[in-house]
Amino acid sequence: MKNLKKVELSQLSDIRVDYYFGVSEELEILVIKYSGTYGFGSAGNTDAIYMNAMGKAAMEVWDPGAIIIDLQDLNYEWGDMLDYVFNISADKYPNEALPLAVIVGTGCEEAVRTLLLGIDSKEPIDKIGWIFKDLEAACKYINKKF
Description:
Largest sheet: 5 strands, mixed
Structural class: alpha/beta
Number of helices: 3
Number of strands: 5
Low-confidence stretches: none
Oligomer: single chain
Helix content: 25-40%
Strand order of the largest sheet: 1-2-3-4-5
């Protein structure tokens, strides 16, 4: 084979991924923390693909009972594919996705709100029901869903 070139998934994105695994009320929860700057608009497509792939890989390795996606340190302004990151359990569990909560921070809260509720929506992000501003609230939600 000619022109064989080494490639790495990390070349797709500058987003950093950290994983945390813990137990809350006997439920094993995988926390996936994404940090960095998500590309604006379609420039973020490879970020979303990378984040989704890293989330799916972590699910295969740790096989959690629930997932919390932590976006507190993510700067995200606009891009339709971010919701692709929220669907990481759909392939493995097509009939019933795992309980999922998302934590947002000031660098992404408004953009996540408009992504999920619509650009013209005046509804608060709390209306979504599975979006939170801290880990404790996200864990309480996950435990209730379980």
